[in-house]
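ugh ok fine here u go
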Amino acid sequence: MRKRLDSLDIKILEALGVYGPRSISNLARKISKPMSTIRDRIEFLKSHFSLLLQAKVYHTFIGLKKVFVFARATPGYERLLWESLKANGYWLYLTARYDEPESFYGIYGIPIDHTEEFEEFIKQIEELKIAQNIDFCYSTCIHEIKLTSKWYDHESEQWVFDWNRWIEDIESQRGSLPYTLVEPGSYPQKADRIDIIILKELQKNAECKLCDIAELLKVPPQTVQYHFKNHVIAKGLIEGYAVFLPHFEGATDSHLFRFNFHDEKSMTHFALSLEDKPFVRSIGKIFGENTLFIHIHLPRNEFRGFTDILSKLTIKGLIKSYDYAIEDLSRKEAQTIPYELFKEKSWIYNHKEHMKKLHELHSEHFSQRA
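structure:
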């Protein structure tokens, strides 16, 4: 069994990110390959490279505001902190960090009218001394970076990390931030219950058949088809499609970098330069700051070259400063949008229930130690 991607794999993955996985005939036409070849190769990538295809929800248009939460556990309370962070049902992603002993970070999507209650929930975790310190910051939607072949040599079928060329890419950028990284002025609720269920299913599997969703909802297939076309797609509830698989050969690490910039212009140029970089997975912009959180997945033997170029970027003033954490992917959980909390075109946010669950977890922890 081959252990690395070949040129056709890269072309298919690149097309999947741009056009999505819902029309194999369209992919075949774009790549100029038979449909049977495309289908077989996608199945091969699923079975041998753990390919996962997901729709990425544009949370702003369903009334949810993104929050990054960082927490360091009080010694002895590590498991309690992990469970406490999940006591609020609006968490989307949680993982451990290697930078500090038993530190975690999570990404939440909070109903826009309940951010103050969420802040109270987070502060309560610290007041209960479950965490030694806990911090949070609001973010734009997460901008997914699509895999491209710009740094891939199709002749040798290898990735080429030309770090110095990246400097030229940043300096030559023109344009504006992608709309997903622009701080929204409002969080309109554009979805109904059927839309939310469709989004949830496509988050799990972007290839999910609409007729299967109709069966799940016990409605006619035409109803789901209408909502998918006229709501989910037409109203922009999906930002795009994410293609997940380990596309680098050998040992790799996942990092969360925080980059600070001198001004919005330099931040924009940096963000735009990442659109075709294979080591970048996603970007989020922190509200009110010229700061980006960037998920980076990098071969371990390229990490030194990456940090060396960051030093050059800092000297040239293209970035102001940065820090990072290495993710412990053995402790990672993710969930879809909390569809069960959506009723009558609005989100149910039971603050009292969140706080009650937090205190119950705290009491249970001490009863077990007694």
